[in-house]
Specification:
The chain has about 100 residues and is an alpha+beta fold. It contains three helices and five strands; from the N terminus they run αββββαβα.
Length: about 100
């Protein structure tokens, strides 16, 4: 499975292009390691670098940047690759932070 769909990629890029510094867009996609502790709620994507912005939940929750190229190679504790939550509905990053 692809990390993100083309529609999600287009929305993430559109958010990046419209960014005014507030970082207030909704999370478009949720990625996670099925056998680990990593979850990423992404709201923007720079198409030139393939670097996304969003809420990164590893050992702590923090806003930051992550490389989609790198995420596509990462595995969890049992070696399972990062997956996209097919049932995730776009929602505010603040709501994701409360999950």
């Amino acid at each position: 499975m692809k990390l993100i769909t083309q529609a999600q990629r287009d929305k993430l890029i559109a958010n990046h292009k419209q960014q005014d510094g507030t970082k207030s867009f909704d999370a478009v996609v949720k990625l996670f390691t099925p056998d680990g502790c990593g979850t990423w709620y992404l709201s923007e994507l720079d198409p030139e670098t393939n670097i996304a912005f969003g809420l990164c939940c590893l050992h702590e929750k923090e806003y930051g940047y992550v490389s989609l190229d790198e995420l596509s190679t990462v595995g969890g504790a049992l070696g399972l690759k990062v997956e996209r939550d097919k049932w995730f509905t776009p929602t505010s990053l603040e709501h994701c932070e409360a999950l």
